[in-house]
Amino acid sequence: MVATSMKQKMLEMLNGQEGQFVSGQKISEELGCSRTAIWKHISELRKEGYEVEAVQKKGYRITSTPNHITANEVKLGLNTKHLGQNIVYQESVTSTQEIAHRLAYDDVPEGTIVTAEEQTAGKGRLGRNWHSPKTNGIWVSLILRPKIPPQQAPQLTLLAAVGVVKAIQKETGVLAEIKWPNDVLVNGKKVVGILTELQAESDQIKSVIIGMGINVNTSAAEFPDDIKEKATSLRIEAGKELNRASLLRRILEETETLYEEYLQNGFQVVKLLWESYAVSLGKHIKARTLTGVKEGIARGITNDGVLLLEDDTGEIHQIYSADIEIC
Amino acid sequence: MLKIQEIRELIKLIDQSSIDEFKYEHEGSVVSLKKNEIQTVQAAPVQQQVETRPVEVASAPAPAEQSKETATAAPAQKEEVQEKETDESLHKIKSPMVGTFYAKPSPDADNYVKKGDSVDEESIVCIIEAMKLFNEIEAEVKGEIVEILVEDGQLVEYDQPLFLVK
């Protein structure tokens, strides 16, 4: 634990210098550790993928940071109170949701997140698989413990979509849209999927676990044939490779801001923002459910986030669960 | 005059910009948007403006009222279900929220439980989903499933009985 925070502090010192050298003397004085200890931490950073230049009489500087989403990478410069302050990182996992579930039972603090470079069994809706190739995306689960009635928890899935869209816009300039309830699309293709699980006991929420799968640096060729037509990545849309840790920080920051606003003042502001980013409203849609297909115009959402669909006869249907296809 | 869609567009643009305050006046109607310290949009003045234009928003309140009707219709169904099963010795597993009832984890999997299965407190009996939020429902009681009251894929109401346990 001590060693980790020492490495983290050193990383902060080096990163804060923006490419300038920091002398071994200075590091050792500020962190109160020996030259040997510094060297040990530098070696560890290199193993994690940092390129650290060491020049005699000048000191150390970072010339390249790894495009990883380790706890170190994500925490550096993260401006949140809770969200992402406790990070559980593993190189490869079955699914971040599965780990987050266990952690949530074990009473980890609110705001704990689980990230991984790769998911071997990423979860989609209704037992579907989510393609999660190595180091190309952000596969993350956020653990929240809101003191709200369980029946209001679905609002948080819309909140998460708004947070992600805002973060993507700020980080990449790409304008994404939301397809009800929380698919994030760019140019009509899916770039983010969000799946949320609730742990509740009778009338109390134990935790809300928001799982996000974000296609960040996937190239067009890397998408399997069956999802090629429907999926895209931010790299394809922005036309450049992106820093995943930096994007994840933005997501955590935007989501926390919305979450605090939500806890304080309710769903109203989140709803307005959601509507402003919604692609499906006012359009002709098909809603596929287990029991059949409903077709009509998407009229809006209720205060609970329920989709209102008006069919040909003018009847309004409330949609709670469906795959939406925009016609 | 501004349409709802245009107001939404404005909210989006202001939200993404560094502008803190925005005011638009046209023929007596006013839209004013203001971000507070934690960067939110205050929407009250928009509502005021909406009220002054009954023609354009006529379609908006209608769905809300209709949805109320369907919402009030639902408890009636619930009562029927409850009347059918008056055996007070049976424990009812109820839905903690409105949503879709799933009897199995994925369409080609087996049901979590079937009639005659014994369950304990932590047995998962079904999933309720709304807006892609999945809630695994635990039995919270030890016993035997004697009746499944709802169909796979059915919309269930808050507090609606789902299973009867003996």
In sequence order, what are the helices and strands of chain A, one letter per element? Answer: HHHEEHEHEEEEHEEEEHHHHEEEEE
Tell me the structural class of chain A: alpha+beta
Number of helices of chain B: 4
Strand content of the residues of chain A, in percent? 25-35%
Task: Identify the CATH homologous superfamily of the largest domain in chain A.
Answer: Bira Bifunctional Protein, Domain 2
Protein architecture, described:
- Chain A: Belongs to the biotin--protein ligase family.
- Chain A: Residues 24-43 bind DNA.
- Chain A: InterPro entries: aa-tRNA-synth_II/BPL/LPL, Bifunct_BirA, Biotin_CoA_COase_ligase, BPL_C, BPL_LPL_catalytic, HTH_11, Transcriptional_repressor_C, WH-like_DNA-bd_sf.
- Chain A: Its EC number is 6.3.4.15.
- Chain A: GO terms for molecular function: ATP binding; biotin--[biotin carboxyl-carrier protein] ligase activity; DNA binding; transferase activity.
- Chain B: One of its GO terms (molecular function) is acetyl-CoA carboxylase activity.
- The complex is a heterodimer of chains A (327) and B (166).
- Chain A has 327 residues and is α+β, with helices and mostly antiparallel strands.
- Chain A folds into 3 domains: 6-64, Orthogonal Bundle (Arc Repressor Mutant, subunit A), CATH 1.10.10.10; 71-277, BirA Bifunctional Protein, domain 2, CATH 3.30.930.10; 284-326, SH3 type barrels (Roll).
- Helices cover 34% and strands 30% of the residues of chain A.
- Chain A is built from 10 helices and 16 strands.
- Chain A has helices at residues 2-16, 24-31, 35-47, 71-75, 96-105, 155-172, 225-228, 234-238, 244-265, 268-277, and strands spanning 51-55, 59-64, 87-93, 113-119, 122-123, 129-130, 137-144, 177-179, 183-186, 189-201, 204-215, 284-289, 292-301, 307-310, 316-319, 323-326.
- In chain A, the strands form 4 sheets. In chain A, strands 3-4-7-11-10-9-8 form a 7-stranded mixed β-sheet, sandwiched between helices. In chain A, strands 15-14-13-12-16 form a 5-stranded antiparallel β-sheet, with no helix packed on it.
- In chain A, helix 1 crosses helix 3 (35-47), helix 6 crosses helix 9 (244-265) and helix 6 (155-172) packs across helix 10.
- Chain A is elongated and about 80 Å long.
- The N and C termini of chain A lie far apart (54 Å).
- Chain B has 166 residues and is of the alpha+beta class.
- Among the domains of chain B are: 4-34, no CATH class; 87-165, OB fold (Dihydrolipoamide Acetyltransferase, E2P), CATH 2.40.50.100.
- In chain B, 30% of the residues lie in helices and 29% in strands.
- Chain B has 4 helices and 10 strands, in the order αββαααββββββββ.
- Chain B has helices spanning 4-16, 44-51, 54-57, 61-84, and strands at 21-26, 29-34, 91-94, 99-102, 118-119, 124-130, 133-138, 143-148, 155-156, 161-165.
- In chain B, the strands form 3 sheets. Chain B has a 4-stranded antiparallel β-sheet with strand order 3-10-8-5, with helices on one face. In chain B, strands 7-6-4-9 form a 4-stranded antiparallel β-sheet, with no helix packed on it. Chain B has a two-stranded antiparallel sheet with strand order 1-2.
- The longest helix of chain B is centred in the middle third of the chain and has 24 residues, at 61-84.
- Chain B starts with a helix and ends with a strand.
- At the A-B interface, helix 6, strand 10, helix 9 and helix 10 of A face helix 1, helix 4, strand 4 and strand 7 of B.
- Strand 10 (189-201) of chain A pairs parallel with strand 7 (133-138) of chain B.
